[in-house]
Write a structure and sequence with these properties.
Radius of gyration: 21 Å
CATH class of the largest domain: Alpha Beta
Distance between the termini: 25 Å
GO molecular function, one term: ATP hydrolysis activity
Strand content: 15-25%
Largest sheet: 6 strands, mixed
Organism: Amycolatopsis acidiphila
Number of helices: 13
Protein name: ABC transporter ATP-binding protein
Number of strands: 10
Oligomer: single chain
CATH topology of the largest domain: Rossmann fold
Keywords: ATP-binding, Nucleotide-binding, Transport
Order of helices and strands: EEEHEEHEHHHEHEHEEHHHHHH
C-alpha cells in the first residue's frame, strides 16, 4: 500500500512574493488525489516542495515519519526513493531510446544486474502500453507515448507515491482519457498513493478519490471528491464550469466592482462562453476489466463513512448515491436515505 503524506502549515515564498501559505492536507495511502487551481497558483511548486526540490519557509511534509522540510540530505535522498514523478514534458533524455530512459533510475540508484533491469523495464513498458517501443527515441513518438514513457520511468523503483504534474498537458481529449484510465489501472495494480496536478476538469471529475484547490495563495478546500464536486464555493463553481463569472480573473483575482458588473451582465442574459453548470457527481472511472478492484476504494469508503455526518448535505447525498445496496447495508444506512426534510441518514458506528 502507498505511503500517507501529511502536510501541515506549508508556506512557500520567492523573495517577498508568497506563493501559497498554511497549506494543510493529508494524502490518504493508496488513494488518487487531484490538485486543481488557476494558472500561476503554485501547483507545480507544491509538488517540488513535497519532494524537497524546493524548501518551504514554514510547515512540514511528513512521509513515513520523515519531515521532508527539515530532514538531512541522507534522509531526503532515501525518502525520495518512495516517490515517482511524472513531469509535464515527460523529462526524457532525447539521445536515449525508451528502454534506456526507463532503465536510467535503476542504473543510477541501484546495483541490479542488467538481466534484472531488463525484466523490470520491460514490465513497466508493458504496464504503460509501450511494449515493443523500447528502441524508439523520444523524438520519434507522439506526445501521449512520451507521457507514458515518463510514467514507466517513474514506476521502475516501485514508488509508494506517484506525483503527476499536469499529465494531460499537450494531449488531446482522447489521449487524456486513455491516460486517465492508465492512472486508475496503475493504482489498481500497485496500490500507490497518487497526486495529480491538472487543469483538466473531466479528469478531475472522473479520476480522483479526493480533490483540492489552490486559489489566492491558499488551499480553498481538500477532501472527498463529492465535497468539491457539489460545492457552492464561488471559485470552485467557476473553475469547474470554465466560466468568466466568478472571482478568478485573467491575470489575478477580481475586485468586487468587476464581479458585480459581470453578475449584472449575466442576469441581463449575456452569455459568458461557459457550458451548463456541471456541479454534481460524475461516475468515477473503474479499472479495466480483468484488473483487480482498487483496494483504495474500500479504504476510502470506510474513511468517508466515518466522517459522513460532518460533510455538507449535497456531498452526503452524492456519497450515499454512489453506494450499491449491499454497501449501504454494510455501513448500516437506514432505509430512509433521501429524506425530503434533508435530515441526515442514520449510519451505524
Amino acid at each position: 500500500m502507498g505511503a500517507e503524506v501529511v502536510v501541515e502549515g506549508l508556506t512557500k515564498s520567492f523573495g517577498r512574493q508568497t506563493i501559497w501559505q498554511d497549506v494543510t492536507l493529508t494524502l490518504p495511502p493508496g488513494e488518487v488525489s487531484v490538485l486543481l487551481g488557476p494558472s500561476g497558483t503554485g501547483k507545480s511548486v507544491f509538488l517540488k516542495s513535497m519532494i524537497g526540490l524546493l524548501k518551504p519557509e514554514r510547515g512540514s511534509c511528513v512521509v513515513n515519519g520523515v519531515d521532508i522540510v527539515r530532514c538531512g540530505e541522507h534522509q531526503l535522498y532515501e525518502t525520495r526513493k518512495l516517490f515517482g514523478v511524472l513531469f509535464q514534458d515527460g523529462a526524457l533524455f532525447g539521445s536515449m531510446n525508451l528502454y534506456d530512459n526507463v532503465a536510467f533510475p535503476l542504473r543510477e540508484h541501484t546495483r541490479k544486474s542488467e538481466t534484472e533491469i531488463r525484466r523490470i523495464v520491460l514490465e513497466k513498458l508493458e504496464m504503460t502500453g509501450l511494449a515493443g517501443a523500447e528502441k524508439k527515441l523520444p523524438g520519434e513518438i507522439s506526445g501521449g507515448m512520451r507521457k507514458r514513457a515518463g510514467l514507466a520511468r517513474a514506476l521502475v523503483l516501485d514508488p509508494e507515491i506517484i506525483l503527476c504534474d499536469e499529465p494531460d498537458s499537450g494531449l488531446d481529449p482522447v489521449r487524456t482519457a486513455y491516460l486517465s484510465q492508465l492512472l486508475i489501472d496503475l493504482n489498481a495494480q500497485i496500490d500507490a498513493t497518487i497526486l495529480i496536478v491538472t487543469h483538466n476538469i473531466n479528469l478531475a471529475r472522473t479520476v480522483p478519490d479526493n480533490i483540492g484547490m489552490l486559489f489566492r495563495k491558499e488551499l480553498v478546500m481538500f477532501g472527498p471528491r463529492e465535497v468539491l464536486l457539489t460545492s457552492d464555493e464561488p471559485v470552485v463553481r467557476q473553475f469547474l464550469n470554465g466560466s468568466r463569472l466568478g472571482p478568478i480573473g485573467m491575470s489575478e483575482e477580481k475586485d468586487s466592482a468587476q464581479m458585480a458588473r459581470e453578475q449584472a451582465q449575466a442576469e441581463s442574459g449575456h452569455h459568458d462562453g461557459s457550458t451548463e453548470d456541471v456541479r454534481g457527481m460524475a461516475p468515477q472511472l473503474r479499472p479495466t476489466p480483468g484488473l483487480p478492484e482498487r483496494a483504495g476504494v474500500r479504504r476510502r469508503q470506510d474513511r468517508v463513512m466515518r466522517i459522513l455526518h460532518t460533510l455538507p448535505p449535497a456531498a452526503r447525498e452524492g456519497i450515499i448515491e454512489s453506494l450499491t445496496p449491499a454497501e449501504q447495508s454494510h455501513y448500516g444506512l437506514s432505509s430512509g436515505l433521501h429524506r425530503p426534510d434533508g435530515s441526515e441518514p442514520a449510519v451505524s458506528p
